[in-house]
Amino acid sequence: QNVGTSDYIVSSLKITAGSQEPIEIHSIRFYQNGTAADADLKNLELVVDGAAVATVAQPTSKYANFKFANPIVIAKGNNKDFDLRVDIAEGSSRTISMDIDKKADVVSKGQTFGFFRVPSYPNTTSPYFNANDTTIDKGSIAFSKGVLSSLNVSEGGTGVTLGAFKATVQGEPVQVTQFVIGA
After folding, report:
1. What average pLDDT does this structure show over 27-40?
2. What is the dihedral of CA 22, 67, 58, 4, to 10 degrees?
3. Average of pLDDT values for 122-134?
4. Which is more confidently placed, 177 or 148?
5. Residue 165: C-alpha distances to residues 6, 140, 149, 173, 179 (Å)
6. Alpha carbon distance 56, 144 (integer Å)
7. Most buried residue, 65, 136, 138, 171, by most Cβ within 10 Å?
8. Integer CA distances (angstroms), 22 to 82, 105, 129, in order
9. Do 134 and 8 meet the contact criterion of CB atoms below 8 Å apart?
10. What is the pLDDT of residue 183?
């Protein structure tokens, strides 16, 4: 994915309630197990049923902890999908892998009996849920036409701007060492 991509889904969980009782999901904590830095990801949103239920500005020490103001209830025998959307702000050539690192990273509670429960996971060791890796594309520089205040040049004028351009850099710092303009 390119730097500057918004609302990109980097991880999706399907949580299923057992047949005994409905469950409440109180929080979910993701661990950024890739090489991306905390500042590479911005505006993290956890989406359920098409609506954002919690947001985090950016990961802290590689963790994004989503605590719900009101628990997400899953009826017994049913499931819900939790999609993690992010804006990719930086991080050329780095990877993103938003995983569930510890069993207790999904905090759930049974509604009927009122006990907190440790969910079962697809993996038996950490990471217990391993999301697909996303690679952040290399940086880029793009040039576009700039705005000139005047298109007329008087004879004998000095210091007159003859052209303008705009450079947009994404992904990583760019150092321009030579710029050649031909006639």
Report:
1. 97
2. 40
3. 94
4. 177
5. 26, 16, 13, 19, 12
6. 34
7. 136
8. 17, 19, 22
9. yes
10. 63
Averaged pLDDT score across all residues of the chain: 91
Closest residue by Cα to residue 105 from 133, 143, 131: 131
Query: In sequence order, which residues have a C-beta less than 8 Å from that of residue 39 and are 6 or more positions away?
Result: 58, 89, 90
Is residue 55's pLDDT more than 90? yes
DSSP result, the chain: --TT--SEEEEEEEEE--SS--EEEEEEEEEE-SS--GGGEEEEEEEETTEEEEEESS-BTTEEEEEEEEEEEE-TT-EEEEEEEEEE-S-TT-EE-EEB-SGGGEEEEETTT--EEPPP-S-SSSSSB-PPPEEPPPPEEEEEE---S-----TT--S-----EEEEEESS-----------
Quickly state the pLDDT bin for 153 (edges 50, 70, 90).
Answer: confident
How many residues in total does the chain contain? 183
Between 174 and 67, the more confident residue is 67
